[in-house]
């Protein structure tokens, strides 16, 4: 999926900033791709971008109108349809990460065809895929993995890409989720891929490259999450990573959404991820640990990170609170 940029970010009428996480993620990581924002009456979220109509955004170079919010059920509210149609008539492509498909709305399909624009259902799109081969390929790859889902794998991957580029490394973020795809403008929604093809999809998004080129691959789920371990394992094999970055939330008591399932010990999680990654890359190593420490005082967080650094002999940091430069520098020194 290759989504034309720049974007006009649609905020709808959301009142909760978390509901606009897609738009916020794009603006945070790719501000240069954001021409402006548009909201409906009652919206209480702003990105601080110019407020534009689709026609105004088109005049300023926008190419795609992004539905930048999520709602319960992932459907397209009926009262959004007028705005979406206005965007199509203004000549903008439409991109959505919602469960409901744009292409399942006949009037949108007909209107898009009439105005020669595309409808991008980010959560559902995938190219024709092959099963994974496990064949060695050139280039360097680092994959974010986790003790659980929703522990910052996308944020860590994007922060690591930026830090590596700052060091002069040829690094490129590879998106595997709908928000990451809209941030990058390309990628594949790995959780929508049929299980037999997950490792092949991971090979597809991180193909052979120059010896000094790094793919920073966005991880999904966790090997220890009963619901999502399958996608995590497929990504681990297909990515053929040279390095892993473990992501974690300090103090999380149990697996997300499963209070009956205690969170895995970090040591066990590191071991099993490395063990399974060796199927396609026998030389894989741990490069660092990225921890969300936001629920703890700074001194307590620093002490915990220092303990992890000592235990695993790799940099441990909170990539939001303290930055991720130490992990980027670790990777740089491994190849120099």
Automatic annotation (TrEMBL):
This is N-acetyltransferase DgcN. Residues 132-327 form the D-glutamate N-acetyltransferase-like C-terminal domain. Residues 41-124 form the D-glutamate N-acetyltransferase-like N-terminal domain. It comes from Vibrio porteresiae DSM 19223. It holds the Pfam family DUF1611. It comes from the Bacteria. InterPro entries: DgcN-like (IPR011669), DgcN-like_C (IPR035086), DgcN-like_N (IPR035402), P-loop_NTPase (IPR027417).
């Amino acid at each position: 999926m290759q989504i034309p940029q720049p974007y006009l970010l649609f905020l709808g009428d959301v009142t909760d900033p978390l509901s606009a996480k897609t738009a916020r993620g794009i603006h945070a990581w790719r501000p240069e791709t954001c021409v402006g924002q548009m909201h409906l009456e009652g919206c209480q979220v702003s990105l601080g971008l110019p407020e534009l109509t689709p026609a105004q955004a088109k005049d300023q170079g926008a190419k795609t109108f992004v539905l930048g919010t999520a709602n319960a059920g992932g459907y397209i509210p009926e009262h959004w349809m007028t705005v979406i149609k206005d965007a199509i008539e203004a000549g903008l492509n439409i991109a959505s990460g919602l469960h409901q498909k744009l292409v399942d709305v006949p009037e949108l399909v007909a209107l898009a065809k009439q105005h020669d624009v595309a409808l991008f259902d980010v959560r559902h799109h995938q190219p024709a895929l092959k099963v994974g081969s496990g064949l060695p390929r050139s280039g360097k790859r680092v994959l974010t993995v986790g003790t659980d889902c929703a522990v910052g794998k996308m944020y860590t991957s994007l922060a690591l890409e930026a830090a590596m580029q700052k060091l002069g490394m040829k690094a490129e973020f590879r998106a595997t989720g709908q928000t990451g795809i809209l941030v990058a403008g390309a990628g594949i929604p790995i959780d929508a891929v049929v299980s037999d093809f997950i490792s092949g999809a991971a090979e597809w998004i991180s193909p052979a490259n120059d010896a000094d080129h790094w793919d920073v691959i966005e991880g999904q789920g966790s090997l220890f999450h009963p619901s999502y371990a399958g996608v995590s394992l497929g990504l681990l094999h297909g990515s053929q990573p040279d390095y892993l970055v473990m992501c974690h939330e300090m103090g999380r008591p149990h697996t997300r959404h499963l209070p009956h399932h205690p969170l895995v010990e970090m040591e066990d999680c590191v071991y099993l991820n490395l063990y399974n990654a060796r199927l396609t890359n026998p030389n894989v190593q741990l490069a660092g640990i990225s921890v969300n420490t936001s629920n703890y005082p700074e001194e307590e967080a620093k002490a915990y990170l220092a303990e992890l650094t000592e235990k695993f002999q790799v940099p441990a940091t909170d990539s939001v609170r303290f930055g991720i430069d130490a992990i980027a520098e670790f990777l740089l020194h491994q190849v120099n």
